[in-house]
Amino acid sequence: TTKIIATDGIGAGSNVVELTQDLAIADMTVDGTLTVDGILSLADGSNSAPSLTNTGDLNTGLYFPAADEVGLTVGGTQRLNVSSTGVDVTGALEVTTTALVTGVLTTTAATVSNGGGQFNGGIVVGVDDTGYDVKMFGATSGRYMEWDASLDRLFLRDNTKLTLGNGSDLEIYHDPAAGSIIQEGGSGSLF
After folding, report:
1. Which pLDDT tens digit goes with each residue over 132-141?
2. Under a CB-based contact definition with an 8 Å cutoff, are residues 182 and 170 in contact?
3. CA–CA separation, 68 and 26 (whole Å)
4. pLDDT (tens digit, 9 = 90+) per residue, 56-90?
5. Distance of CA 20 to CAs 6, 17, 37, 38, 112, Å?
6. How far is CA 127 from CA 78, 88, 104, 123, 124, in A?
7. In this structure, are strands 170-175 and 162-164 parallel, antiparallel, or unpaired?
């Protein structure tokens, strides 16, 4: 049997309810604090009706979409899913300080870093025998370096200089007005 202890509201033990076995409650309103000493088990819920939500916004909260998964829904749309295989985010993920990726970062987006980034290690674009174009832009409009995967060729677009040596010893570039230029600017000789 279930043992329920309730006081009459007088003395130190007032408003105390003690349950010694599981109790199923269909509806309950708690005005104040609900403390659970043990496991709180909730229904699975759904993205439109999460099992843990707040009054007045019933389609936003926490639910359990499948075994070993936890979902976070906002406005009836799942925005976060945590499972044994990882974390899936639907929508934009905004990082305002630092995001640390210790494994592999895979993206299908055109922009990975808008405003700068630091990569400590190698950067690999694609895998062998796949075609991906890569562009690196300079501060001046129209000047950039481009790897064109369809041609297997590296291009330095007009007036984009390839500089060799610490003191601009050798520069190679194309100027539309002057033509192709190989210029030795250091103290050595051009052979």
Report:
1. 788 888 888 8
2. yes
3. 25
4. 999 999 999 999 999 999 999 999 999 999 999 88
5. 13, 10, 12, 12, 55
6. 32, 24, 13, 11, 8
7. antiparallel
Q: Which residue type is seen at 10? A: I
Q: Which of 150, 166, 160, 154 is nearest to 181 (CA)?
A: 160
The full 3-state SS of the chain, as one line of letters, equals CCCEEECCCCCCCCCCEEECCCCCCCCCCCCCCCCCCCCCCCCCCCCCCCCEEECCEEEEEEECCCCCEEEEEECCEEEEEEECCEEEECCCCCCCCCCCCCCCCCCCCCCCCCCCCCCCCCCCCCCCCCCCCEEEECCCCCCEEEEECCCCEEEECCCCCEEECCCCCEEEEEECCCEEEEEECCCCCCC
8 A C-beta contact, residue 65 and residue 71: yes
- Report the predicted TM-score, pTM, of the whole model to 2 decimal places: 0.49
Spatial separation of the C-alpha atoms in residues 159 and 18, rounded to whole Å: 81
Report the candidate in 155, 138, 137 with the shortest Cα–Cα distance to residue 146: 155
- Residue 31 and residue 29: Cα distance in Å, rounded? 6
Going by C-beta distance under 8 Å and a sequence separation of 6 or more, which residues neighbour residue 161? 171, 172, 173
Q: Give Cα separations from 175 to 29, 144, 164 (angstroms).
A: 77, 13, 18
